[in-house]
Amino acid sequence: MKKQIFLMSSLLIALTMVIIIAGCSKEDKTEFKVTSIMAGTIDLNGATAPTNVPPDPTITATFSLGVDAASVNNNSITLIRSYDAKQIALTLTVSGSVITIVPDENLGNGTLYTLGFTSAIMSTDGQGLSAFTRTFTTEGTFVPNGMVAYWSFENTAAEVLGNFDLVPGGVIDIAYASSYSAAAGQAAKFNGATTLIETAKGDSLMLTKDFTLAFWVMADSTKHGQFVMGLAGWYGFQFEITGDYSWCKLAAQYTTGETTTSQDLWFPGDGITKDNGGWKGFTFCKDLTGSGGVKYLLANKWAHVVCRFISDTKIATMYINGEKMKEQDYNLYDAPMTLADGLKYNGNPGNNNFVFGFIQDKNDPTIADDWAKYENPANGHFKGLLDNVRVYHKALTEQEIQLMYDSEKP
Asked: Residue 350 half-sphere exposure, CB side, CA atoms within 13 Å?
């Protein structure tokens, strides 16, 4: 009997030891998890999502164990842009326990992203990862990618991307002043009589099907009738504010089959559309008659203006301060505007300088009328401030336009 009790006790002790040893082995096994995620010196794995990640980051994710390289791809690691849910293509490399993540495109400024790691990622010893996400925002204010030209006016009249050169002797009486916000820095100041900035190769700004022009402007209402910018007037494109501030427009030359035709994206702020007595192509016009009209938006205050054209739909739209103000559908116009398929320069071949402060180049004007001559200071020279002029050869989305305004507004 004692022998049986002894044997049973021995078995219980042995079984207990096995359980203890097994438990210890299980506890000692290292869990496969992330230990750090860094964008340079910026921690993406902390309690607070960073807002200062550069738009061209190299991200390193370090794990507690070696990573199975075969499990790492653009399905197991994703980078999603928040405002449009676009997945950004990534170049991924694995070295031991570190995954290096490099976006294949510039992420832009002031943009929220979600970086995701799925359970498909495996360790070299066969453990799966518990899925998780991290968010971050790129530094600066939101600016959509893809600019072909950008004038920052940070104490310079030059186009800062380097795609367009200043015309020799083409910067006249320019000054700089504080812009619409501290973050925006400086703005270009125009005196309403002589100030001019001339940039070469302006015609190439228009060699595009889809087009977006965005800028900040504060017009001084003591000047009546203002050409904020122009490229041979409507033979290229121009932005104009009328003398009593009752309307503004972007006049532009469009390709229409084998010819080109000018058309105004005209905003009078009166609410008139094709459905209530307006031109048949006017599909939307914001009614500002109860709030001071266009003058309320543009006179003596900063405004963010965006004009765009989408070739596939043949729709031109103007936004002011992030809000749609005017829309025109060229499918509903008379011929040849129904054939509008992009923008194209049609001014004098030698007059392709794009200018700020007037309607056209002062030395070789396409428009010969007296009111379009630079030499007369009483003509429509721009008086006021101008900043952050951006040109795109694509149509920005409404969400991008709204985000840009919300990010930059004073």
From this structure: 4
Question: pLDDT tens across 123-152, in order?
Answer: 999 999 999 999 999 999 999 989 999 999
Rounded distance between C-alpha atoms, residue 103 and residue 92, angstroms:
9
pLDDT for 7 equals: 43
Q: Are strands 248-256 and 303-310 parallel, antiparallel or unpaired?
A: unpaired
Do 59 and 50 form a contact (C-beta atoms < 8 A)? Answer: no
Query: Which CATH number applies to 34-137?
Result: 2.60.40.1220
Q: How far apart are CA 342 and CA 395, in angstroms?
A: 11
Q: Find out whether 84 and 397 touch, Cβ atoms under 8 Å.
A: yes
Nearest residue to 246 via CA among 260, 227, 225, 229:
225
Distance (Å, whole) CA 67 – CA 397 = 39
| pTM, entire model | 0.87
| Residue ranges covered by each domain of the chain | 34-137, 147-408
Q: 34-137 and 147-408 share one CATH topology?
A: no
Contact (Cβ atoms closer than 8 angstroms) between residue 385 and residue 179: yes
Helix (H, G, I), strand (E, B) or coil at 307: strand
Do 7 and 13 form a contact (C-beta atoms < 8 A)? no
Burial of 397 (0-12, 13-18, 19+ CB in 10 A): middle
| Domain 147-408 fold | Jelly Rolls (2.60.120)
Question: What are the distances in angstroms from CA 218 to CA 110, 142, 215, 296, 302?
Answer: 24, 21, 10, 12, 4
Tokens (6 digits) for 57: 């980051």
